[in-house]
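hey so i finally got around to running the thing on that chain from the lab meeting. sorry it took forever, my laptop kept dying and i had to restart like 3 times. anyway pasting the input first so we r on the same page abt which one it is
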Amino acid sequence: MKTKKYFHLAILLTIFIFTFSCKNDFLERAPDDKINEETVFSNWDKVNALCNRLYNDLRSRDRGIVTLQHFSLSGITDECKGTTVEGAIPDQFNFGSFGPSIGMPSGANGIYWNDIYSGIRQCNVFLAGVKKYNSPDNPVDPGDLKNRIAEAHFLRAYYHFLATRFYGDIAYLDYVPDVNGDLAFKQQSWPDMLTKLLEDLQFAIDELPVKFRDTEYGRADKGTALALKAIVLYMNASPMYNGGILPGNDSRIGKEQYSTYSVEKWKLAADAAKEVMDLQYNGVPRFSLYTGNSNNFQAESNNKVYARIKQIYIDNYSIQNEFVFVLSK
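ok and heres what got predicted. didnt touch it at all, straight out
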């Protein structure tokens, strides 16, 4: 009986000590939307979630075949002519009325100035916060923090690429502006923009893994960053920035720096594209073309070609090995 009595006392004593050693405010925590930035950046799970949110709006910023609201990019080239319905976005672009102050049409899909710069700001807030508060790494998988920082550099470059593709000379923001400071941002010339883009992309290329584990598929990896680098350098080699002459008043900043044609720019673009093709993972090419349904490839009837094209987008092997970057939501 004494043993049983002492056992009960021990349990009560343990409960007493545990209760009064806990913080009184354990259950009085602030909601997630009320916590301060130090709390966010001092917790790995919150840091990881914050990086994941950087991907959230990206699909709306670059929608592929319907990039221009309800139109494809071909509507602003000589491939086709966009109609005047749905806001006539291709016409607004071609006639010079597409700019930062363009009004938001109904159902805007996020391709406009403030949408893109909202994404840029989120990247900068993330990078600044991680550095300021010395954010902890993933305790389960060390090295994840390094990857998230590299992903943010890639995404910042991606957003700036989208902005300069639509608006030409823009301001490259690689910091969080002080709302009480100087907000008179200045447009930068394309060569200056290119330098900033390549710096962010090279950081990502150096730090990102060649391939993420399957549970993290969809994140930007080394091949994704290499591919965007190739696209940016291809853009740099195009007539727009390589000896081309624009009709009318050429208002591009620093146009003197790229008014002369250089074949070297094409070599840089080709070399960058070759890096993507030569990238290896476990001794085999990281990317490879889809080869399934080979028997249907040459068929020109009975919808076999269309079936094969559809299969590319639902075949897991194709998605894992041919897709360079998947914008998902």
